[in-house]
Amino acid sequence: MTQNLVRDEAIRLPMRFSAGTVGARFLTALRDEQRILASLCPQCSLVVCPARSVCPTCCAGIDSKVIPVGPGGRLESWTHLPERGTFGLVRLDGAGTSMLHRLLGLPESWTTGMRVTARFAPERHGSILDIEGFTPEGGEA
Ligand SMILES: [Zn+2]
């Protein structure tokens, strides 16, 4: 009888692709204005952050209408990965969706539901990492 053998491996697939019109506006606003943009779905009125061209709820195409949200928001959930850092789902003020990003500070600093605010990187290059991460609102952890 032949035994099924399994190999556990990870495949790394580096990719490079266009951010698209709405994504480029989002990234440009992070880099040049330190503003976080969301898109407003014309069909279901969901405010989607980060801004994107298709609504994740109703799949309607979203034109180029973008609106600023945050930089403050509420921490909806978080996790700490040893040697990788702490990550959270943040619902920015005015947004109808959550953004996954780094939390800057000690794991003991975080509680679900607390207020947080975005900290922008001192040097920005048009990437989601132009937001360095989120800190507790009103002070560092
Ligand atoms: Zn929608």
User: Which percent bin holds the helix content?
Assistant: under 10%
| Low-confidence residue ranges | none
Whole-number count of domains: 1
Strand content: 25-35%
Round the mean pLDDT to the nearest integer and report it: 93
Q: What strand line-up does the widest sheet have?
A: 6-5-4-7-8
Largest sheet: 5 strands, antiparallel
What does the radius of gyration come to? 18 Å
Element-level helix/strand string: HEEEEEEEE
- DSSP summary, beta strand count: 8
Put simply, the count of helices is 1
Identify every distinct bound molecule in the structure, by name, code or SMILES. Answer: zinc ion
Class by SSE composition: mainly beta
N-to-C span: 59 Å
Brief rundown of the structure:
The protein has one helix and eight strands; from the N terminus they run αββββββββ. With 141 residues, the protein is mainly beta.
Written account of the structure:
- The chain has 141 residues and is mainly beta.
- It has one domain (20-136).
- It is built from one helix and eight strands, in the order αββββββββ.
- The protein has one helix at 20-33, and strands at residues 36-40, 47-48, 66-69, 72-81, 85-92, 99-103, 115-120, 131-136.
- A hairpin with a 3-residue loop joins β4 and β5 (85-92).
- The mean pLDDT is 93.
- Zinc ion binds next to loops.
